[in-house]
Amino acid sequence: MIDQAMERQLESAEAASGASQLKMIVRRFRRHRLGMFGLVMIAIFYTIAIFADTIAPYDPLQRFSTAIHRPPQRIHFVDAEGNFSWRPFVYGSKSQLDMQTFQRVYVEDTSKKHYIRFFVRGYPYKLFGLFPTDIHLFGVDEGGTLFLFGTDQLGRDMFSRIIHGARISLSIGLVGVLISLVIGVLVGGISGYFGGVVDEVTQRVIETLRSIPQIPLWLGLSAALPPDWSPLKVYFAITIILSLLGWTYVARVTRSKFIALREEDFIVAARAIGCTTSRVILRHLIPAFASYIIVAATLAIPGMILGETALSFLGIGLRPPVVSWGVLLQQAQNIAAVNTYPWLMLPAPFVILAVLAFNFVGDALRDAIDPYSQ
User: Fold this and answer.
1) I need a labelling partner for 119 at 20 to 30 A (CA). Which of 25, 53, 260, 328 fits?
2) What is the pLDDT along the chain (374 residues), one digit of tens a residue?
3) Could you say which DSSP state residue 83 is in?
4) 18: in domain
5) Which of 193, 305, 186, 196 is nearest to 248 (CA)?
6) Can you tell me the distance from the alpha carbon of 178 to that of 247, in angstroms, rounded to the nearest whole number?
């Protein structure tokens, strides 16, 4: 309590001395440990998504016919004879049939040692879609393989697929929230600014949409997509579906802020000097609560990510060959498969970490913008 009182006195002194509101918000945000942790995690995730081709050692669609459902390989610094090596390495492997379960099992072949090297050549790609290259962050000697997260039922590297899946799963949240913000601010702003019949009709529509169970609605709208659509069309369709269901919360927040601000002195003065309605809304009302819109957007992104993951997991969202975290988790629908090949569940921790990171940042922004909300 004493620390909080001292912090508020310091902030009051900063405000009196002319410190900008943005500086005080940044200062309060940096004191929020979970918020800073979430911001670092988000930065890491999006860096991985941007440089997915460079980080992933293999093409996400490349198949290794001799490595079906291969478990994650162990990285060694000490070989079987007890010799230490500063350069990490992995052993080769041999597959054999377990006569009790009749399943293929892999055992390390200690006679084959493959060193992990950095900035190696691999499959060709275009960096940022512009610059052709084949340089990858890490890999192993030619003739060896490196499956950090194992392989799936077709022998595809799970690590590479998870890295590439981050692009779709994280970008669909940003694109979906952007569309939701535009619709929500537009509809909520009109409702709150004009009031009366416009407000009543708009609020009844919003209440109707919010009363519909989202999961069945998602299922129905996604199932209506033509099965012959290309993966790109399906991606944009899923984004629009999630956006059309997520704008109501932003509209409610925008409406309440417009109602609170429309009779303020600076708004009345703007109307008195002849400002048009669009100018009052765009130049005066929206900037007055832009920080709250940012918070709402930050807290809405996890819902978009979970929505895409849920739809793709159920098989009615994105479909192969598109690679997203939800598509990868389709393999985990079978409990027997998960019990036998638990590494198929590895996309789930990435979804959880991404959602938690955005929630931490959203909570930190809310506390930083309104310190009395704590």
Assistant:
1) 328
2) 445 554 555 455 544 444 566 787 788 888 888 989 999 999 999 999 999 999 999 999 999 888 888 899 999 888 878 888 888 999 888 877 766 666 778 888 888 888 999 999 988 998 887 889 999 999 988 778 899 999 998 889 999 999 999 988 888 878 888 888 888 888 888 888 888 888 899 889 888 888 878 777 777 777 777 777 777 777 778 778 778 777 888 888 888 888 888 777 887 888 888 877 778 877 777 777 777 777 777 878 888 888 788 778 777 777 788 888 988 888 877 776 778 888 989 999 999 999 999 989 888 887 887 655 55
3) -
4) no
5) 186
6) 10
Phi/psi for 176 (5° steps) reads -65, -40
Q: Which amino acid is at 96?
A: Q
Tell me: do 203 and 268 sit in the same domain: yes
Is the same domain home to 111 and 173? no
Q: Would you call 94 helix, strand, or coil by DSSP? A: strand
- The CATH number linked to 273 is 1.10.3720.10
Where does a domain end: 92, 111, 146? Answer: 146
DSSP string, 177-220: HHHHHHHHHHHHHHHHHH-HHHHHHHHHHHHHHHHS-HHHHHHH
Question: Cα dihedral angle (293, 297, 299, 303), rounded to 10 degrees?
Answer: 140
24 near 11, Cβ under 8 Å? yes
Q: Are residues 283 and 318 in the same domain?
A: yes
First vs last C-alpha separation in the chain: 12
Number of domains in the chain: 2
Q: Which residue has the tokens 């659509």?
A: 229
Are 141 and 178 part of one and the same domain? no
- For 29, other C-beta atoms within 10 Å of its C-beta total 17
pTM for the structure as a whole:
0.82
Please report which helix (H) or strand (E) contains residue 40, including its range. Answer: helix 33-50
Is residue 170 a contact partner of residue 49, using CB atoms and an 8 Å limit? Answer: yes
Domain that holds residue 276: 162-373
Query: Are 136 and 174 contained in the same domain?
Result: no
